[in-house]
Design goal:
alpha/beta, 8-stranded mixed beta sheet, binds flavin-adenine dinucleotide, 18 strands, FAD/NAD(P)-binding domain, 443 residues
Amino acid sequence: MAQEDFRNKSYWMTTCDYVPGDALQGELDVDVAVVGGGFTGLSSAYHLKKAESNMRVALLESEVIGFGASGRNGGFNMTLFGLTLGITAVRFGKQKAKQAQHYMERAVDYLQELVRELKIDCDYEHPGFLRVATSEKYKQRIIKEMELAHELGLEGIEWLDRDQTRQQVQSDLYLGAWWEPRCGILNPAKLAWGWAEVIRPMGVQIFENTPVVEIRREGGRVRLDTPGGHVRADKVVLATNAWSHFFRSIKRKQVPAWTYIVLTEPLRPEHFDAIGWQNRQGIEDARNLVHYYRLTVDNRLLMGGRDIATTYGDDMDNDLNPAIFAELKDDVRQLFPALKGVRFTHEWGGPVSVPMDMAPAIGYAGDKNIVYSLGQVGHGVSMTQLNGRTVADLVLERRTDLTDVFFVNRRTIPWPPEPLRNLAARAILGYMHWEDRKYDPAV
Ligand SMILES: Cc1cc2nc3c(=O)[nH]c(=O)nc-3n(C[C@H](O)[C@H](O)[C@H](O)COP(=O)(O)OP(=O)(O)OC[C@H]3O[C@@H](n4cnc5c(N)ncnc54)[C@H](O)[C@@H]3O)c2cc1C
């Protein structure tokens, strides 16, 4: 990739300077090699160094720090685990759903704490989160979800009726909302690059433009091959998210799926007169294939979601989707007719990691030499930061309250090989579309 090409991967990557580091050349010997320079890898490296400052830690990133989902996402710091609380409760039982929610609440608070303590400049704001109902059936879905949350003893979520919701954000489509003040929004590329600035001085060696092409066991240790050289490590962290199927030991645990975003020019005061949104909450709706939208620090409207795309086999080339970009722009105009004349300036997409049961997984890949973390679907901004600490505990073979959660070393449902993988992914996506149309034929 040419030196500055990564900046095309998202608007966020154009918002501040970042100069990628050197690629690995020659041989390197370390205690831990972290593969992948997204939030998971960065946070894992940080927590390893924090636990043992003498530990030799190298982070190997195939492109540039933040190149994956971490530098391209919506920037919602939010508590959702997997797809919904209800689905998690059906899949794992109510007590585990409660445990997952507590982990996520901790993750959201922890991200805010890290940003503050490490002084990471990432335009962090804490305006809270609205899950809006845009049809009567979605309203019932949200209320049911909220009743489950309250039954599990979860706090900090309340229902806003139609008028209360529209006092916050004015759209004729809103019939009410789940209101969760705990959540925030941020600039994710600034967060990823801010992380790099934190861990470099701690002694983590970061190598960019350094894809790991092969991992093999070698006399009780692990050898990682890259185009310019190789690394020998006692332990390895696979923080490769949607690319994880390229590694044999975790090949079937997830598949990549792409979600897309469009961004407007900065909105003007007359737009805010029409749509309100003075309190700048992050917003999602209650579809299976959610819309997620928010304001940037310079008042652009970011709209993402609506549909996702998959690929066949090892194809990772799916970052642009003109049809979904066009639909997202229509969705903005439908939600907020007052924004009809507003120009769209950016569009991009990125891959999320999807396990068969849509729930995250962390654990050892075979023996204790290799730890992986993947599968946050579209909700990993908060979780990956705390997962880095959990991963560090696993690498250090420490049993803690973090490693005791049910999704650490859980049994995942393997995705089948192609062509069945593609058929299964299409079938799941087809069902999600069908149900969304049933809940709201207008969208
Ligand atoms: C468009 C979009 C919007 C999203 N919006 C939100 C949101 O608002 N809120 C939220 O909570 N979540 C959101 N997510 C999900 C969230 O971004 C991810 O869950 C999170 O960033 C995952 O972080 P990660 O470090 O695990 O993975 P990534 O950030 O994907 O990092 C993996 C890294 O591994 C590198 N890599 C892959 N293979 C190799 C190799 N062989 N050698 C070396 N390096 C390799 C990749 O280049 C990449 O940089 C969104 C995701 C996308 C794509």
